[in-house]
């Protein structure tokens, strides 16, 4: 499993990506517990990373096994389901997880960003520029 942390939570120092404005660094692990532990290790302020501002870390492993999500708001992107690129084998378990989080007390709010479906088109416009930046060594 992988985790995409909040932008800037994990320093970007030493990472070569497409573009620092949308690239993220985050843990990949075999379990949620391992990902939480790794996030505790890699998250935090790095004075060499100009993208970071007001980084706040938490003891993520202490939240493991919590069965109360009261007070947590979770946004669900309507355009993230169905459509040309959706996979029913992915949509169904994600919807099940959303229902489980709601049952544990989370407030679920659906949001709509119609332009989300234009993402591939936008990527094709941005990728050549980002790739050029990487190749030139200015990334």
Overall description:
The chain has 139 residues and is mainly α. It has 2 domains: 1-65, no CATH class; 67-139, no CATH class. The protein contains 3 helices and 2 strands, in the order αβαβα. The protein has a two-stranded parallel ribbon. The longest helix has 18 residues, at 119-136.
List the total number of helices: 3
Strand order of the largest sheet: 1-2
- Low-pLDDT segments: none
Number of strand elements: 2
Structural class: mainly alpha
Radius of gyration: 18 Å
Could you give a short account of the major beta sheet? 2 strands, parallel
In percent, how helical is the residue content?
A: 25-40%
Distance between the termini: 27 Å
Total domains, how many? 2
* Helix and strand run: HEHEH
Strand content: 5-15%
Question: What is the molecular shape?
Answer: globular
**Average pLDDT taken over every residue:** 86
Summed up:
The protein has 139 residues and is mainly α. The chain is built from three helices and two strands, in the order αβαβα. It has two domains: 1-65, no CATH class; 67-139, no CATH class.
What descriptive keywords fit this protein?
mainly alpha; two-stranded parallel sheet; 3 helices
Layout of strands and helices, then pairs:
Blueprint: H1 32-42, E1 73-77, H2 88-103, E2 107-111, H3 119-136
Parallel strand pairs: 1-2
């Amino acid at each position: 499993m992988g985790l995409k942390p909040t932008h800037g939570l994990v320093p970007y120092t030493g990472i070569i990506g497409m573009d620092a404005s949308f690239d993220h660094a985050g843990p990949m692990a075999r379990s949620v517990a391992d990902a939480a532990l790794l996030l505790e290790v890699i998250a935090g302020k790095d004075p060499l990373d100009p993208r970071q501002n007001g980084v706040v870390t938490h003891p993520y492993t202490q939240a493991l096994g919590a069965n109360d999500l009261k007070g947590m708001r979770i946004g669900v992107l309507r355009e993230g389901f169905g459509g040309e690129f959706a996979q029913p084998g992915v949509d169904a378990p994600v919807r099940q997880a959303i229902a489980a989080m709601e049952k544990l007390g989370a407030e679920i709010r659906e949001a709509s960003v119609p332009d989300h479906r234009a993402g591939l088109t936008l990527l094709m416009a941005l990728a050549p520029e980002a790739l050029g930046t990487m190749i030139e060594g200015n990334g």
